[in-house]
Design goal:
The chain is α+β, with helices and mostly antiparallel strands. 39% of the residues lie in helices and 20% in strands. It has 5 helices and 9 strands. Strand 1 and strand 2 form a beta hairpin. The longest helix has 46 residues.
């Protein structure tokens, strides 16, 4: 089971989600979207919270209020982290998560630690947590199917962009050829290079 929340501090709202237990967390680690943002309480056990970015969006585009929602949610779902103040929440893109066969369930590493961000959370803000909990929905998605469908659409989009690029290149090549032909024609019609009969002299006999 996956728990979904709606961060409506901005319009349109963002979708936040997390696994209901460690097994769903493992599935999310395995079948997440590359553009998902992963959140976890640093150096403490906690839920794995994810934020789904919009198409074409980067981590830098996410409003700070939405990041705060994610940080509050992950703190509230940490047994120890929820009880103490001044904790740190780490977050990075799903694509930066590293999972190897020797790791325990729920354990992850990073491909590049420089791409991991840290957010300080002073205390739990009940207003935020309660607002998010009111939007909570329990669902049983097929995470593998969702990921494969996402990848299929990504491939189709890439093919379409490639076709459009080739069409633009074809049109550009046609335009260059037309301009080259026009320049060649203008050169042939250059009046400074034309010779009249008078300039060249007459071959006709004079009968006068």
């Amino acid at each position: 089971m996956v728990l979904y929340f709606r961060s409506d501090v901005v319009t349109p709202p963002y979708t936040i989600f997390m696994g209901a237990d460690k097994h769903e967390n493992e599935d999310l680690i395995k079948w997440g979207f590359p553009e998902d943002v992963w959140f976890h309480v640093d150096k403490m056990s906690s839920a794995h919270v994810y934020l789904r970015l919009r198409k074409g969006e980067t981590l830098d585009d996410v409003p700070s209020a939405v990041l705060t929602d994610c940080a509050q949610l992950v703190k509230a779902n940490s047994i120890h982290g929820n009880k103490v103040n001044n904790i740190a929440v780490v977050y990075t893109l799903w694509a930066n998560l590293k999972k190897t066969s020797d790791m325990e369930i729920g354990q992850v590493g990073f491909h590049n630690s420089k791409e991991v961000h840290i957010m300080k959370v002073e205390k739990r803000i009940n207003e935020i947590v309660n607002r998010l909990n009111k939007t909570k929905e329990e669902k049983f998605p097929n995470l593998r199917d969702e990921r494969e469908e996402r990848d299929r659409l990504e491939r189709e989009d890439g093919k379409q962009k490639l076709r459009e690029q080739k069409q633009r290149e074809k049109e550009e090549e046609k335009r260059r050829k037309e301009e080259a032909a026009l320049r060649s024609y203008d050169s042939l019609m250059d009046s400074s290079k034309m010779v009249s009969n008078q300039d060249a002299g007459s071959d006709e006999d004079d009968f006068m």
